[in-house]
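Hi F.,

I've been meaning to write this up properly since the lab meeting, where we talked about keeping a consistent format for the predictions we share between groups. The idea is simple: the sequence comes first, exactly as it goes in, then the C-alpha cells exactly as they come out, then a line or two of notes. No screenshots and no reformatting. I'm using this chain as the first example so we have something concrete to point to.
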Amino acid sequence: MSYALVDTLNVLLIGVIVAVGVMLPTSSAGGRRGTYARVATLLVFGDWLGVLALALLSLLVFDGIGDAVGTFVDSPLFGILLVLTGWFVGMMALRSGGSAGSDGSSALVSRFLGPLRTPSPATLLTGVVLGLVQSATSGPFFAGILVMSAGDFSTSTRYFGMVVYAAVALSLPFLTACAVGYVRLRPQSRIGEIFAGMRENSGVVARRAGLTAAVMLMVLGAGHFL
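Output, unedited:
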C-alpha cells in the first residue's frame, strides 16, 4: 500500500475540491445548505470509482501476462524505474517554479468546475473522469498494481485489495474535503487560517507535494535493492 500512499498526493483532485469550497457560497452567504457536502461526496466517490475501475482493469491485464510481471517486479530494473520516475516527478515539480498556475494547473482545475456548482450525475461523472486521468498518468499507481499482481496472494485477495488500494489512494483528498467543509463552517479557525495561506501560495504547496511524492518514490526504489 506504500504506492497508494504516494498516489494519494493527488494535486489535481485536491485543487478541484478546494476550488469547489471557494466557489460555492456558504449558507450564511445565501447558498443552499448542504450543497458543498453533496458535491464533495459525489466528486470523491466518483473519483474512487474511476481509480477502482482502472485498478481492476490494470490488474486483469497484469495477471494475464503472468510470470513476466513477477520477473519484472523482482528485477533491479523495477527499482531503477522507480528511482527514475521519482527523479522525473521531482524535476517537474522544480520546473513549476512554485508559482500558482505556472504549469497551467489553475486552468486545468477551472475546466472541471462547471458540473460542480450543484450536485448531479454530472458531478459524479466528473469525479470518475478525474480518477481515470490521475491514475492513468501516475507511475506509482501502476507500480503498486504490478507488485500486487506479482505477489503471492489469492485471486480474491488481489481483486478485493484493489478496493482498499483505491480507498487509500483517495485518503488525502477525502481528508481535504472534510477540512474544507470545516473551514466553510468556521473560517476564522486555525485550520481556516492554514487553508487561506495554502490558497495564497497554491503553487508552492503543489511544488512541495510533487517533491514529497518524488522522494517517496526514490526511497521505494532504493529499498528495492536492500
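Notes:
DSSP finds twelve helices and no strands in the chain.
Residues 35-65 form the longest helix (31 residues).

If this format works for you, I'll send the rest the same way.

G.
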